[in-house]
Amino acid sequence: MLEKSFGLLYYLKQTKNQKNENRYIYLRITVDGERREISTKRQWISDQWNAQLGRTTGISEEAKELHSYLDLVSVKVYRAKTKLLEDNKPVTAENIKDVLIGKDEKKFHHGSISTS
Question: What region holds the Arm DNA-binding domain (predicted)?
Fold first, then answer.
């Protein structure tokens, strides 16, 4: 069954006791209103982030590398979605997250997709 809505959003999240301007970048996967979050394990400067686009505002080499990395993570999400469809598994935010982090490999019968 195909989902009615599907979305990906990268956003910055401040952790407790974090004093500097860097924030961790998280990916929010939304399927039919159900949301799950995954840390990309990357950080970026909060005042150089476009929240609407979910991307950096810079054009430095570091910014370009981060864009490429986030694009790669997005591709892995779409691959996980395709794998669920091919295996006739429900496409839910939780199931996509499980595939990405390698949780319930026995349940899905395939390897994890590393996001690091």
Answer: 11-97
CA 42 to chain centre: 11
CB atoms within 10 A of CB 88: 7
Instruction: Measure the CA–CA gap between 52 and 37, rounded to whole angstroms.
Output: 17
The number of beta carbons lying within 10 Å of the beta carbon of residue 65 is: 11
| C-alpha dist (Å) from residue 40 to 13, 48, 82, 116 | 11, 17, 21, 7
**Which three-class secondary structure state does DSSP give residue 96?**
helix
Radius of gyration for the alpha carbons in the chain, expressed in angstroms and rounded: 15
Residue 27, strand partner residues: 10, 38
In terms of Cα–Cα distance, which of 81, 66, 68 is closest to 113? Answer: 81
pTM: 0.80
The tokens describing 86, both together, are: 């091919």
27-47 pLDDT, tens digit each: 999 999 999 999 999 999 888
Distance CA 114, CA 101 (A): 7
